[in-house]
Design a protein that fits this description.
The complex is a heterodimer of chains A (89) and B (194). With 89 residues, chain A is an alpha+beta fold. Chain A is built from 2 helices and 4 strands. Chain A has a 4-stranded antiparallel beta sheet with strand order 2-3-1-4. Chain A starts with a strand and ends in a 5-residue tail after the last strand. Chain B has 194 residues and is an all-alpha fold. Classes of the chains: A alpha+beta (89), B mainly alpha (194).
Chain lengths: 89, 194
């Protein structure tokens, strides 16, 4: 099975919810999600953030939905780490 | 219910509307209290009026204050929220109708309208409660009109205390200030209607 274990996303979000609420909402997608958020740029009503996501198997659609629910939008996927579990055998 | 309250708190948080709700609660609550106080003092100064007339007049005013609060706040807040959402959508270059911001633009005006309408209605009903009790046939140790004035003054004082606590200043001073406003209102009514 191919699993996505790490992703770096470039996201544009409104000021509210703030970085803490925003990353918490993403971490709530699944129990083992690790979220690291860095604010890169702050504009009048938006901010560009870099989100580093780590988990055993990232569900990107669910993450994207959590981001859009908070009013944000994924601009680009800057880094991805994918593992193929069948390689281990 | 708890989830609904948490959701409401979250929507108020992302739209930074806490202070608006608080302001509407105090402003319209104060409106309700002073309107009832004015009506009751007016009836007190008039030649003896039937209690049912007083109750109906006060109830009518309380309902009108509630309806006015709900409708005016909903119309103005709805327009304001849609404007804010439009500005945010422009900045985000995306449709935010299905996001928390879109939901807030629809729900927050309703919430604010409810607070704006219920605040004067509940405060007015509390003030006229002695009149309602007396009208229902139960006897009170003090005249219902004087009891209503006493409750109105207590509620005005409590609104002042609430404001004082928000501002972080002396709650007693703030309470006395609002009480003073109520006293001036009473004096003005006496001067102009007596």
């Amino acid at each position: 099975m191919v699993s996505v274990t790490r992703m770096v996303l470039d996201v544009l979000k409104p000021h509210q919810p703030n970085a803490l609420d925003f990353s918490q909402a993403i971490a709530e997608v699944d129990s083992d999600y690790y979220v690291h958020l860095t604010v890169l740029e702050v504009d009048e009503s938006t901010e560009t953030v870099e989100i580093v996501l780590e988990a055993k198997n990232i569900d990107f659609d669910a993450v994207q939905l959590a981001i859009s629910d908070m009013g944000g939008s994924v601009h680009s996927i800057d880094e991805v780490e994918v593992h193929n579990d069948s390689d281990i055998r | 219910m708890i989830k609904l309250l948490e959701q409401a708190k979250f929507l108020l948080h992302i739209t930074s509307s806490h202070h608006i709700v608080r302001r509407y609660f105090v402003v319209n609550g104060f409106d309700g209290a002073l309107t009832m106080l004015g009506l009751i003092i007016g009836f007190l100064l008039s030649s003896s009026t039937d209690l049912s007339v007083i109750v109906n007049a006060c109830l009518g005013a309380a309902i009108a204050l509630g309806m006015s609060g709900v409708s005016s706040a909903y119309v103005s807040e709805s327009a304001e929220r849609q404007h804010e959402l439009g500005k945010l959508e422009e900045a985000m270059i995306s449709d935010l109708q299905s996001s928390a911001h879109g939901q807030a633009a629809r729900s927050v005006p309703l919430l604010i309208a409810l607070v704006n309408g219920l605040s004067p209605l509940i405060i007015s009903l509390l003030i006229i409660s002695p009149l309602l009790i007396s009208h229902a046939g139960l006897s009170l140790p003090v005249s219902p009109l004087y009891s209503a004035i006493f409750i109105a003054l207590i509620l005005v004082f409590l609104l002042g205390v609430f404001l004082g606590r928000i501002a972080g200043v002396s709650w007693l001073r703030s309470g006395i200030q609002t009480l003073l406003i109520a006293m001036i209102t009473i004096v003005l009514i006496y001067l102009f209607t007596g």
